[in-house]
Amino acid sequence: MIDTHCHLDATRFDPDRNEVLSRAWAAGLHGIVIPGVGPHDWEPLLEMSRQEPRLQVGLGIHPQLLPDMPPEEDDAVMEHLDALLSRGGAAAVGECGLDGPSLPGAPLERQVSVLKRHLALARKHGLPVLMHCHRLHPALIDLLKEEPLPEAGLLMHSYSGGVELARFYLQKGCHFSFAGPVTWAEARKPLDALRAIPLERLMAETDAPDQAPTPHRGTRSEPGYLPHIIEGMARVRGEPVEEVARQTTENARRFFREAFPAPSR
């Protein structure tokens, strides 16, 4: 199993990060993708990945971080990101995307501009994209109708849209990952999409420390909870847990270009 989206560098893991990792490996995980959300993350994440090959990282700017960055620095920050990606060590570009309807200091026009530059860097460096989209799917769809997707692919992280949106993203060649909400009793719309998406386009994530699955809902999530999410996905789809675990892991290995070491036999 591979957790395709886990903020392991979050401060909530500072007291026991090593123990969290030990529990993840004991739970059967073979890899974890840690998405960078801002420039302060990038170098530490690359070093984390160098120390532990089962940890792979994405480098990007989360739209919610834009208010903390002066707009006049966007060019310099994106050039720095380009330089880091040129050095290698990153498995993806992102987390990046759109977050709406708007944020102080991050109007939609700026968000779209920064996202276009992420997509261009992904195309340039042959890397997939970790895409965040919250309440701005119409704007993202408009962008993706005009902007070529990276050949390496695009992963809709913690997908929460409905079936019709999913059909558009499928047609564009996107993949989808699902997190803890697939186990929540009130979940509806994303579950309909989960049933409609082909298994070969699916992956699993925890989005830890957020969105903990049942039975841990309301507490800090961690990568070792991924089996609960895969069990939830299998239950929704009416498929064997073992098959969903096998296929989502295979999908993640292929999507991230075999970045993770093969599990020991």
Automatic annotation (TrEMBL):
Keywords: Hydrolase, Metal-binding. It comes from the Bacteria. Pfam families: TatD_DNase. The keyword Hydrolase applies. GO terms for molecular function: hydrolase activity, acting on ester bonds; metal ion binding. A divalent metal cation 2 binds at H132, H157. CDD domains: TatD_DNAse. A divalent metal cation 1 binds at H5, H7, E95, D207. One of its GO terms (cellular component) is cytosol. InterPro entries: DNase_TatD-rel_CS, Metal_Hydrolase, TatD-like. PANTHER family: D-AMINOACYL-TRNA DEACYLASE (PTHR46124), HYDROLASE (PTHR46124:SF3). Belongs to the metallo-dependent hydrolases superfamily. TatD-type hydrolase family. This is Putative deoxyribonuclease YcfH. It comes from Pseudomyxococcus hansupus.
